[in-house]
Amino acid sequence: MKNNRRDFLQKIGLGTAGIAAAPFAVNATSLSQPAPEADDEQYLKIGDDIAIADTSFGKIRGYQLNGVYTFLGVPYGANTAGKNRFMPPQKPEKWEGIKDTIWWGNTAPQIMDNRYAAVHYSFADHWNYDDVSEDCLKLNVWTNALADGKKRPVLVWLHGGGFTNGNGIEQDGYHGENFAKKGDAVFVSINHRLGPIGFTDLSGVGGEKYASSGNVSQLDIIASLHWVRDNIANFGGDPGNVTIMGQSGGGAKVTCTMAMPASKGLVHKGVALSGSMLRANDQEYSRKLGQYVMEEAGLSPATLDKLQEISWREYIDLANKALERMRKENPQPGFRGGFGPVADGVHVPKGEFFSDPNDHTAEMPLMICTTFHEWSATRTNAKLEAAGEAEIIEAMKQRFGDKSGEVYKAYAANFPGKKPAEIMTLAASNRANAVACGNAKVKQNAPVYMAWFGWEPNLYNGRMRAFHCIDICFWFDNTDRMYTHTGGGKRPRVLSEKMSASLLAFMKTGNPNAGALPNWPKFTAQGGEVMVLNDSSEVKNDPDRAARLSLA
């Protein structure tokens, strides 16, 4: 997983990130709340007539935990195996009786080999995975009430992992209970197809049958949003106020989903953390890759359907071999290309997203956040932490080539007093893509708000810094649940309370000002206004602009 996400982070401009994600606590209790009740009342309720909700496909039964109704593994689409592979998502079959939805849905097909091989990643980041299968179109819901007529704001979480890995509960920070309870919001997270299963464009060799194959992963997200529109009122939510939010690859999914014509009326606001995209893969590229997949399988257009008959693992392996060939014979600049959204002009627009001042995205507010040290390579490397300027400049050549010295000096001047290793990390974790996304979106009517997360945990001798993924648990009131990222306790909790209040305000109104943080101005291309999030948060005007100029 680390290699796939590392490639993605390079692709979106974050460098080889210290990739962080973590677990669902086995006792399922909310650690970021005090003990459930002072009198120690029972806080888990599960039974025949507890937590029953209606959906358009049948009744489901979950449970109540700490007063929050919880439904896990709710079907929003049919099994994508066999004849449904490479096809747009189909609706699940309706069921009789009541379906128990008390455990996570299957993880989408992805390579699981050696997922837990690195002990420090396994400790700090954990990785939560269950059964892997193509029957993965499932979602999770947390809410304070069922069908009570209230219109709570709805958040739909799109997980990270590039476009290749991950799931809706990959780390504890994704858990929705605390945010739903405190904010009186409805929290939804989803699983959807990934990698070659979700993004192989066979339209060039397979004709009309495979016309949508390059974007079925994104169409899964749209299908989940249709489920939200049609069902979320039964969970106390407002289908007219839906915010999509994601991190890393999930952040790129946010901006891509917003840009899709099918998101009109389904998405009302977006939040992109540590990742965004402004263009999808060119279809000439994606069709060539699809042709290479067919050839790697030894098939022809007449026999292409056999790709729906082999196991998902066999298919991913041969697709990745085709990708290796593609990268050798048709290299893309930087880390573009691979299996990801396709600019087909039907499902995903061609050209730059948000470029039309009058399309449906023009009224969607957007919040963007990155972290100071997305690439935190010093976590387990005390030697790198102590390296001198010359060593660091040499190491930076892997990323910046002959410009490494110039980039180092620019960042050292912009951030005086920082260690050489931290200068390297700041440069590799640059905000260039985030600012580019903000500059593109701000040309439309709806506001853009920019944040930069700099809070650092006192873990690993201070070497973890503000690494990739650390901010997720702050937005969702999960800093005690995600203690291997924060250390737990009061210090991170204080900032989390301010950030989650701001997120909730943004969901409700499109404006994050809730009185918890300093006044948060709209982002402008001229001012570059950014909320710097830390123990003491403050607004600055494009504080790293001088350093970023060295990247051009």
Produce the secondary structure layout.
Blueprint: H1 2-11, E1 44-45, E2 52-55, E3 58-61, E4 63-65, E5 68-75, E6 98-100, H2 119-124, E7 138-143, E8 152-158, H3 177-183, E9 186-190, H4 195-199, H5 203-206, H6 216-231, E10 237-247, H7 249-259, E11 269-273, E12 281-282, H8 283-296, H9 312-329, E13 342-343, E14 366-371, H10 382-385, H11 389-400, H12 404-414, H13 420-428, H14 432-441, E15 448-453, H15 472-475, H16 483-486, H17 490-509, E16 529-533, E17 538-541, H18 545-548
Parallel strand pairs: 3-6, 8-9, 8-10, 10-11, 11-14, 12-13, 14-15, 15-16
Antiparallel strand pairs: 1-4, 2-3, 4-5, 5-7, 7-9, 16-17
Helix pairs in contact: 8-9, 11-12, 11-13, 12-13
Key structural traits:
552 residues, alpha/beta, Rossmann fold, three-stranded mixed beta sheet, 15% strand, disordered N terminus
Explain what the structure shows.
- It is built from 18 helices and 17 strands.
- Helices cover 31% and strands 15% of the residues.
- The strands form three sheets. Strands 1-4-5-7-9-8-10-11-14-15-16-17 form a twelve-stranded mixed beta sheet, with helices on both faces.
- The two termini are 30 Å apart.
- It has helices spanning 2-11, 119-124, 177-183, 195-199, 203-206, 216-231, 249-259, 283-296, 312-329, 382-385, 389-400, 404-414, 420-428, 432-441, 472-475, 483-486, 490-509, 545-548, and strands spanning 44-45, 52-55, 58-61, 63-65, 68-75, 98-100, 138-143, 152-158, 186-190, 237-247, 269-273, 281-282, 342-343, 366-371, 448-453, 529-533, 538-541.
- It folds into two domains: 1-279 and 335-375 and 429-552, Alpha/Beta hydrolase fold, catalytic domain (Rossmann fold); 281-334.
